[in-house]
Amino acid sequence: MSTVSLPDDPEADPRVKQVFDDIRATRGSEFINLLWKYLAFDPPLLKQVWDDVKSVMAEPSALDSKTKEMIYVAVSIANSCSYCVHSHTAAARAKGMSDAEHADLLRVVSTASKTNALLNGLQVPVDPQFNRETG
Amino acid sequence: MSTVSLPDDPEADPRVKQVFDDIRATRGSEFINLLWKYLAFDPPLLKQVWDDVKSVMAEPSALDSKTKEMIYVAVSIANSCSYCVHSHTAAARAKGMSDAEHADLLRVVSTASKTNALLNGLQVPVDPQFNRETG
Amino acid sequence: MSTVSLPDDPEADPRVKQVFDDIRATRGSEFINLLWKYLAFDPPLLKQVWDDVKSVMAEPSALDSKTKEMIYVAVSIANSCSYCVHSHTAAARAKGMSDAEHADLLRVVSTASKTNALLNGLQVPVDPQFNRETG
Amino acid sequence: MSTVSLPDDPEADPRVKQVFDDIRATRGSEFINLLWKYLAFDPPLLKQVWDDVKSVMAEPSALDSKTKEMIYVAVSIANSCSYCVHSHTAAARAKGMSDAEHADLLRVVSTASKTNALLNGLQVPVDPQFNRETG
Amino acid sequence: MSTVSLPDDPEADPRVKQVFDDIRATRGSEFINLLWKYLAFDPPLLKQVWDDVKSVMAEPSALDSKTKEMIYVAVSIANSCSYCVHSHTAAARAKGMSDAEHADLLRVVSTASKTNALLNGLQVPVDPQFNRETG
Amino acid sequence: MSTVSLPDDPEADPRVKQVFDDIRATRGSEFINLLWKYLAFDPPLLKQVWDDVKSVMAEPSALDSKTKEMIYVAVSIANSCSYCVHSHTAAARAKGMSDAEHADLLRVVSTASKTNALLNGLQVPVDPQFNRETG
Hints:
The structure is a homohexamer. The first copy, chain A, is mainly α.
């Protein structure tokens, strides 16, 4: 149950078809996950989001793909986005994340959340040594 | 300005001194950042938090130290913990994170936050293909 | 599956009936959504929450009803409240939000979430020009 | 630096004076903290917020005042509201929270945040035994 | 549908059996809720999380068990962790939380969330009187 | 104190100058706020973020500019981004938001946060009537 209607035949709109074709080509797979199908309710939004995600996640950059997917999972956990946790955990596995790495990711995310709460409770001033410009 | 009092001479308490000594030995540095000094207001809590952070971040595990610090930064950003963002960005740099990797980290975290919001707004059902047990 | 029990016949309690009657009169509809039915487990809390929501959302104020419902959706997305996203998206539509406005709302919410994360990661100081009192 | 202007003489407005008098009478203190002074930029909002906080926090209810203030601190930590953490930690102390109780509060809040993240990462289905209606 | 596989016979691993036995002994109940069963996918993580939760929640400390469970619920609500809200509401009831206390808890959590948002919107400076060290 | 270094002369880099010129032209103002100056540490990230914000906020769309800025403020409050609350409240005022509309915005955001928490605590099932496809 979504807040928008899933289009009956999203690729009937050539703007949607173009994005879906690019998703398939970029991923080397016929599978289009539901996010993109629902986003087809507004083709310009679909295109803008896909272009953003593609440029950040699919193009070569300083970090490797597996690390980027694991960071994506970490953020999705903290933002409590169930769909995103599922889809990016699957993506991280597809990029090679092992069970041990998944457990380690969860260990870091949960411990970070613990100390985040502790610091927000303590309201400790930031050490001047952390200053990038002078520290 | 913290919600607890910074102890005048925290290492006068041997329980605190033991933790501080372990922090110094583990990090190979004399620097004790303010989090630990303020946490000394309750030595058992100080010890419990340090033991947890040390076991997750300082002991060898499936992920390397730099990646773990970057994931820590990602979570701290999402949880809006200013101190944690500063301290773990500094730690990630100390573990070798370059400016380009830092920019890439921010790129992934901000784009993940964008799609997290989008999915929370769309309430798209999770694809059965993401099911770890059957997918 | 809720954390409280749905009362069998909530309107048997006159305090509940009074609130439900006011909900029906205010909205001009017989439909009482489940939030209010579950809240009937504690009639004073039911009344306090309804009075608050009614005064903010149903009474004339500086902003029009459609805009207020869209802001409500934006907050509910950021707080990851699935029920609230569903109920207030439906309310915004009932107040006239078009598909194009819904897409625009999602576009603003997701881009705001992106730059929120970026700024929390960068920890940029606030420009003095934004100071309402001197800027 | 606030997003609204602090009124020069807020109590010149009788609607503000009435609320401030009630704050002083309810608390038995002349001290009006800055939240209320800034909120005086919009007297109806000031009154609505004070009435809500007063009815929840100052009137006798199932939970005692100290416990309610500690719960308030816990929520404020999780929502990363610096002002609220400071003001309600001070309020909890004024209601009798000891240093040991403060440390215990921080211990529970930080461990809860840890397992919250873990569960959001694992996406474990809810046990039917937790069902209030059938469990 | 979880992001990890539920082990077929988790207690076949003696590290898991040891933790499960401790859960049963600590709680005086045969019931092992699903969190722990899923966590068995990584026995060291299972043990670390259980040890942390046990030391904070099951051992005597400054706050009583019911209060600690209610604080846990408050944090879980703010972090939008559905599983945690269910499991710790059930735990708080098991420790004696009445319906009236549950309603009061929800009243405090929701009003705190309201003023948290208000303060984050107003960006009011913190009163110097709240300073623990000088105030 | 930021986590990145403010470049000494950011416009010495032609990629930065091009973006800054576009910011000035789009806004009809010489003022470049600090976010963009700090983002100049990584010109591609600067360009990607500006292009996204410009397309969403500065180009004509279904919603008017003032409404979009108010929605931006609402999200920034919920995500506890202090810089964003300041900059987008100033932007909303520049687009015509009155004091009364600002108060109304804060009223809606804070009441939404209250019911978001309440629903996350109650875990009420979503009414089938909210289903966009069948409701």
